[in-house]
Amino acid sequence: MTPAFRRGRFAPSPTGPLHFGSLVAALASYCDARAKGGEWLLRIEDVDEPRSRAGAADAIVRALVRHGFRWDGEIVWQSKRTLSYGNALEALVAKGHAYRCACTRRELENGALSSTGERVYPGTCRDGIDLSRSARAERAWRVRVGDSTIAFVDRLQGAQAQDLARDVGDFVVKRADGLFAYQLAVVVDDAAQAITDVVRGADLLSSTPRQIHLQQLLDLPSPTYLHIPIAVNAAGEKLSKQTRALALPDDALSALLAAWRFLDQPQPPHAPASVATFWTHAIANWTPSRLPPVRMLPAPSRFVV
Question: What's the predicted TM-score (pTM) here?
Answer without folding.
Answer: 0.94
